Amino acid sequence: MPTYCYRTAEGEIVDRVFPFGEAPGEVEVDGARAVRDLRAELAGSTISVRAGSGRHSKAAWPMTCYASGVHPDQAGELRDYLRKRGVPTEVNRNGDPVYESATHQKKALAVRGMNVRNSFC
């Protein structure tokens, strides 16, 4: 199930898991209201995005990329594939690669015949 991000009035981002398409617009966090934050979802809840720029700040790296992930059973295969092609990349137990920089992301995706169309992964 996908993870959705919500921002509290204090600016804290919290993650909640809901079935696809069933995420509410707001949730309760410690008795307070938190509203869904699409920017945080696109960037990942631990990644900061410069306000209004649509680009990751340097604090965004390393970045876990769910979009270019593989099935968890294939995590080791992807890790070995990238290492053998000169782009060593951590792949988490869920099969999602973890990119260290924008350059690393671009190289790892290129090796797989993919490209970056925007700064979010």
What does this structure look like?
With 121 residues, this protein is of the alpha+beta class. The chain folds into 2 domains: 3-50, no CATH class; 61-111. Helix content is 21%, strand content 22%. It has 3 helices and 7 strands. It has helices at residues 38-43, 75-84, 102-111; strands at residues 3-8, 13-17, 26-29, 32-36, 63-64, 90-91, 97-99. It has a 4-stranded antiparallel beta sheet. Strands 5-7-6 form a 3-stranded antiparallel beta sheet. It is elongated, with a radius of gyration of 16 Å. The two termini are 17 Å apart. The relative contact order is 0.13. Mean pLDDT is 82; it is low at 45-57.
Tell me the major beta sheet.
4 strands, antiparallel
Total DSSP E strands? 7
State the strand order across the main sheet: 2-1-4-3
Percent of residues in beta strands: 15-25%
Q: What is the oligomeric state here? A: single chain
Return Rg in Å: 16 Å
The H/E string reads EEEEHEHEEH
Low-confidence stretches: 45-57
Q: Which structural category do the helix and sheet elements fall into?
A: alpha+beta
Give the overall silhouette: elongated
Mean pLDDT: 82
- The helicity comes to 10-25%
Number of domains: 2
Write the layout of secondary structure elements.
Elements: E1 3-8, E2 13-17, E3 26-29, E4 32-36, H1 38-43, E5 63-64, H2 75-84, E6 90-91, E7 97-99, H3 102-111
Antiparallel strand pairs: 1-2, 1-4, 3-4, 5-7, 6-7
